[in-house]
Amino acid sequence: MELQELAHIWLIVCPLVFLGGLIDAVAGGGGLITLPAYLLAGLPAHIASGTNKCGNVFGTLLSTGRFLKRGDVHIPSAVAGAAGALAGAWAGAKLNLIMPEQMLYYVMLAVVPVMAVFLLFKRDFGQEDRSGELSRGQLMAMALGIGLVIGGYDGFFGPGAGTFLMLAFTGLCRFDLLTASGNTKVANSASNLASLVTFALAGKVMWPVGIPAALCGIAGNYVGSSLALKGGAKVIRPMFFVVLALLLARLLYGLLGG
């Protein structure tokens, strides 16, 4: 690929990956911006999926490190969630390579409005940590299942996975939004890494695009994780609605043949 063509792709992809990284660090769902960016730049669908993981994984790892350093991660459940996400994402990425993704659109179109209504009316959602109501074994089993199911979705499709992880860790494991965000970063790092390796082994990563995009993703995640750690639920909760609106738009666009 010639330098001029690469420069054209970078101009489209890099700013959007920065923005996606920022949103992903706050509320998850950065793939709603980053994956369409690669498609907009003209990359084939499977190459776009693989290169998107390259652009996302390093920024997510940076956010994970910052949450771990601050202690805003429940380590046992986060490890269980990461283990499930590794297995799920590997299986999902394998499935992505052999199946069309449109079958998921119909399910997601039903789920997204329900999530939005739930968040709108349950204003205390994620305000306090009630995970102590569950035993350590229950938390780890729940986190393993969350990682496996949503990790599989992330490997196969991707956009919105971080948001679903955060909602699951908050709603099912009963963490507050900040701890759920930390656990989400750990699980999402695992699913991104497993997906990237799977796509790379299949030759579906365009490294000259993915590496510059990864640098932009790191910068975006650094800014976004700072906002999340400083603002907590006050920053995270409103961003959920932004992400859900983007997800709904992305799904409708896909169904209409975009």
Q: Count the helices. How many?
A: 10
- Main sheet summary: none
Helix content: over 70%
Strand content: under 5%
Q: What would the principal axes of the Cα set say about the shape?
A: globular
Poorly predicted regions are: none
Radius of gyration: 17 Å
What structural class should be given to the helix and strand makeup? mainly alpha
Termini separation comes to 25 Å
Tally of strands:
0
The pLDDT mean sits at 83
Order of helical and strand elements? HHHHHHHHHH
Can you describe what's shown?
It is built from 10 helices and no strands. By secondary structure, it is mainly alpha-helical.
Comma- or semicolon-separated keywords:
258 residues; mainly alpha; globular
Blueprint of the fold:
Layout: H1 3-27, H2 31-40, H3 45-70, H4 75-96, H5 103-121, H6 136-156, H7 161-171, H8 177-201, H9 207-231, H10 233-255
Compact overview of the structure:
With 258 residues, the protein is an all-alpha fold. It has helices spanning 3-27, 31-40, 45-70, 75-96, 103-121, 136-156, 161-171, 177-201, 207-231, 233-255. The chain has 10 helices and no strands.
